[in-house]
Amino acid sequence: MFLTAQGGILGPFAWLLGKLMNLIYNLLANSNGIANLGVCIIIFTIVVKLILLPFTLKQQKSAKINMFLQPEMKKIQKKYNGKKDEKSMLQQQKEMKELYNKYGTSMTGGCLTSFIQLPIIYALYRVIQNVPAYVGKVYKLYEPIATSVSEAKGDKVQQFLIDFVNDSNISSARYAISKFEKVAEVSTNNIIDVLSNFGITNLHDLLDKLSISDAAINGNVDKIDQIHSFMFGINISEAPGWHIGLPLLIPVLTALFQWLSMKVTSNPSAQLDANGNDPSASMMKTMSVTMPIMSLFVTVSLPAAIGIYWMMSALITVVIQLGINAYYNHIDVDALLEKQMEIAKVKNAKKGNKKSFYERLMDQSAQMQEELEKQEAMRNNSAKSLKNYVPVDNNKESETRSNKTYKAGSLGAKANIMMNYNVSDNKKEEK
Question: Angle 86-103/333-351 helices, nearest 10 degrees?
């Protein structure tokens, strides 16, 4: 069953965030059980951002320390500038690793923290995209509508909704209908999944097409309209589209805040490579343009509720990052690095001789390189010995052994030479 709650590994995250969303809605709901979903989403986004704040601070601290270490990194890079052989590259990586260990950080500082946040962020998106699955009072508004649709079309309800979405070109319901098509036995929950991605206009059109004029059903549609009505008359259940109007303000602000968030999180002193180039500058420059544009196009085509979440998330990120930047701009860097060194000493002492996966990988690479160098040296010595060996009679056109004749320069002649050479060595050892 597609509804209602997110399954799989994201299930527990979505369940917990759904409980939070339900709590916020109930706290804001009036006596009729109606609350403004736009306001709920804003509060919900702020609370989740605060929950994730410790991870964000840890990620930013690691990134800032790596930035402060760049002078020492550049010394190591300068030391190996122009050295492209594998041994020098491995040695450079080893010295960089030692530098990171010295200050208790890593070249991927903060990445693990980002990965931890990913399932939470995706689950958060699923909750906002499918509010009836997690907020009981919103579910009850959709339930009688779904029941009426099911009764009106009977066993043909599945194909009817698929055709209705396609014919009406309801882009916000594309994902839901793609799941709905695969359902073997349609339930009320499955229908709610689809209807909750309709705008109010689409719901009215659906009821008109089915000739459903029940006052209670229409009353529920009006209540759904109320909970989705945001400021300035923006209905967050509908996609803003490219029509000039106030709803388009949400995608525009989303793109603007997305651009600002990337601007304030960019590293002004990015790490340079051995040639003095910034290996990340090009990528960051591209992302600072593509990400806002992508957010603009996505939020234009999805319900405005998703745009409100994305907009508020980017805005909160800007505020948090400005605070972090202000803190690290006034902090004593030497004191911070000295403290990090003390923390790293304790951490390394606890770890003892146990090596990380990266260190074991480096050791294996060094061993492989050493083995390759030994094999190369052995091949060179063998070739040199063969080249320096001079037969007793160098003017002969052929060499003979045991009454057999070999053409000069052939493989057989060379094998015969090596055998005579070994025999000669053995005789010397016997003497």
Answer: 100
pLDDT digits (tens, 9 = 90+) for 416-425: 665 565 555 5
Report how far residue 228's alpha carbon sits from residue 236's, in angstroms, rounded to the nearest whole number. 5
The rounded mean pLDDT for the chain is 78
Q: Which residue has the tokens 């209670």?
A: 216
Closest CA to 336 of 150, 36, 67: 67
pLDDT score recorded for residue 420? 61
Q: What is the pTM assigned to this prediction? A: 0.70
Q: What is the pLDDT of residues 183-222, one digit of tens each?
A: 888 999 999 989 988 888 899 999 999 998 888 898 999 9
Q: Is the pLDDT of residue 428 over 90?
A: no
Beta bridge partners of 404: 401
Residue 343 CB partners (closer than 8 Å, separation 6+): 104
The mean per-residue pLDDT over the stretch 40-61 comes to 88
367-to-314, 357, 378, 407 alpha-carbon distances in Å = 47, 15, 17, 43
- Report how far Cα 331 is from the mean position of its chain's Cα atoms: 30
Token representation of residue 155: 């066993």
Sign (positive/negative) of CA torsion 60, 65, 71, 72?
A: negative
Q: Look at residue 6 in the predicted model and tell me its pLDDT.
A: 58
Place of tokens 């060996």: 389
- Distance of alpha carbon 315 from alpha carbon 319, whole angstroms: 6
* Per-residue exposure over 99-136, b if at least 16 CB sit within 10 Å of its own CB, e if not: bbbbbbbbeebbeebeeeeeebeebbbbbbbbbbbbbe
Cβ 336 vs Cβ 68: under 8 Å: yes
Please state, in angstroms and rounded to a whole number, the distance separating the CA atoms of residues 429 and 407: 31
